[in-house]
Write a structure and sequence with these properties.
heterodimer, A: alpha/beta, Rossmann fold, six-stranded mixed β-sheet, five-stranded antiparallel β-sheet, B: 11 helices
Chain lengths: 291, 256
């Protein structure tokens, strides 16, 4: 086990440029009725400034656990997560999270949703509105400032959540399958939006996903995880030109990357599938050592 | 078919609502006139309509209306203040919640109005007795609905708050409370219904104060049209309070 984690670390943390986000030898175990499950097993990687890293894996590989740990929402793990050299213990101001589920505030209109983090940090109203409008227009929702989430489509709401997180100007954007609930076409178009924003802000991004095309479309590197226990199986560099758009999905290198990642994932996904058929996953298992 | 033809104009639903009430009254009028309903038990709707002028002129209805409305208002303020506070405390302290939720729910169905002699001893034959009884009988639904609303706050919204490093106070005022507000207002409306029933009921029982006392007096005089006219004013109190809470809810949600 020790050799695996060492080799992972050597392979993933770039030696040329220091990583802004470092996940170092993360181990997370959950207590279940029939013993324990190791969700993350000596996971190590780094994300360089301005880089877009996608973490991909089958259901049950600990992706969401990783998201919650990096976001500071989950404790009780071994190993460390550092941001700019500082070890995190709880939500970190440099990390902005975009959640998989619908997470807009239904009682606030778009402008007030996006202005929320600015309101919390005490930005005066006039400046807050100005900055919120800037990010609303960045996600392409001009003209919807006064609308409430209930009046918007799922894709638009997810863009509101993203604009809200961007408004807090995080150093690192952490996203957990933000487009999982959307249809494929909307997903590709929102992917374009993400690419555009990432280019514009040079935003360091860590995307958790199970969607191969999404990962290849967006990322500079893709980290493939194994099915339970979640380990780093491989890190693939995506050498597709930037700036990119969703048109890239029809290119030949894109297809090759998708095939390569699927090759890595297929074995893991089928292990997950057969496991799920014999032992249903419990969703409310508790982390070890937590009350 | 165009969608415009499917959408009814704004005035149509209230007009249909009004028409249905008029139709119902017409049916009652007819049933009384043909003798299927005894007119010594149920007065003719047309007689009730003509008695409004008399009740307003002779019985000081506006002053009584204000009295009942004031008692109801005072009870509602107490309800909201104590009900929400107790609900929040019980949500904060799971032990207290587990210990007390069942008997608060049991308290909700208790016929508290039967304890009015006790309140008479405590507060005398006064407005205070009426307000206190109304307040206590409307309290349980506010507590229970506050608890329900706070507990139903979606996990992801709480996580959004955590990710923006909200303080516990901000987490409460900016996320938990606005998220729970619609459910809390369901509780307040329920509590107000109980409160109004008790205000009028106790006024009737102890023959003191506003519309309840008037209904008592008119009934003793066997002025049935007058009784029904007075009941219409009780309904008016209830309508006003519903409109006010609806406005308050919308304002609070937008202010959060």
């Amino acid at each position: 086990m020790a050799t695996v984690s060492t080799s992972n670390r050597l392979a993933s943390v770039p030696t040329t440029e220091p990583a802004i986000l470092v996940v170092d030898d993360l181990v997370m175990r959950f207590v279940t009725a029939d013993g324990g499950v190791t969700a993350l097993d000596h996971v190590s990687f780094g994300v360089k400034p301005g880089e877009f890293l996608a973490v991909i894996g089958p259901s049950g590989c600990g992706k969401s656990t990783l998201f919650n740990i990096v976001g500071g929402l989950l404790g009780g793990y071994a190993g460390a997560v550092t941001v700019g050299g500082e070890t995190i213990s709880g939500p970190h101001a440099s990390i902005g999270m975009v959640f998989q589920e619908e997470s807009t505030f239904p009682w606030r209109n778009v402008l007030d949703n996006v202005g929320f983090p600015l309101e919390i940090s005490g930005v005066p109203k006039r400046e807050r509105i100005e900055r919120a409008r800037h990010f609303i227009s960045m996600v392409g929702l001009d003209g919807f400032e006064k609308r409430y989430p209930s009046e918007l489509s799922g894709g638009m709401r997810q863009r509101v959540s993203m604009a809200r997180t961007l408004a807090s100007e995080p150093k690192i954007l952490l996203m957990d399958e933000p487009f999982a609930a959307l249809d494929e076409q909307t997903r590709l178009l929102l992917g374009d939006k993400v690419l555009q924003i990432q280019q514009q802000l040079e935003q360091t991004t860590l995307l958790i996903t199970h969607n191969i095309t999404e990962a290849v479309q967006l990322a500079d590197r893709i980290l493939v995880m194994t099915y339970r226990p979640g380990r780093v199986k491989r890190i693939v560099d995506i050498n597709l030109p930037r700036p990119r758009t969703s048109e890239i999905v029809s290119s030949e290198p894109f297809g090759r990357y998708v095939a390569q990642i699927w090759n890595d994932l297929r074995e893991e996904a089928s292990r997950g599938l057969s496991d799920a058929e014999t032992r249903p996953l419990r969703t409310h298992d508790k982390p070890q050592g937590q009350p | 078919m165009s969608t415009a033809r499917l959408i009814a104009p704004r005035w149509l639903p209230p007009m249909v609502g009004l028409a249905s009430v008029v139709a119902l009254l017409a049916v009652v009028e007819l049933l009384i006139r043909v003798g299927l309903i005894n007119r010594f038990i149920v007065p003719l709707p047309s007689e009730v309509a003509t008695s409004f002028a008399r009740v307003i002129a002779e019985e000081g209805i506006f002053q009584r209306f204000l009295q009942t409305a004031w008692e109801c208002f005072a009870a509602s303020i107490l309800l909201a203040t104590f009900g929400i506070t107790i609900g929040v405390v019980m949500h904060r302290l799971p032990l207290l919640r587990r210990a007390c939720e069942t008997w608060v729910a049991a308290f909700a169905s208790a016929p508290l109005v039967l304890a009015y002699p006790l309140f008479l001893v405590l507060f005398g034959r006064s407005t205070t007795t009426i307000i206190m009884l109304a307040f206590l009988s409307g309290l349980p639904p506010v507590i229970l609905k506050t608890l329900e609303g706070l507990s139903a706050t979606r996990r992801v919204l709480i996580n959004v708050g955590k990710s923006f490093k909200l303080t516990p106070a901000q987490q409460f005022w900016k996320i938990l409370l606005p998220s729970a507000l619609p459910t809390i207002f369901v509780g307040i409306r329920l509590g107000m219904i109980f409160a109004l029933i008790n205000v009028v009921g106790v006024e009737f029982l102890i023959n003191f104060g506003g519309l309840g006392q008037l209904i008592n007096e008119l009934a003793e005089r066997y002025d049935l049209p007058g009784v029904y006219a007075a009941i219409c004013f009780v309904i008016l109190v209830s309508v006003i309070f519903f409109v006010v809470t609806e406005r308050a809810e919308r304002w609070l949600r937008s202010a959060a």
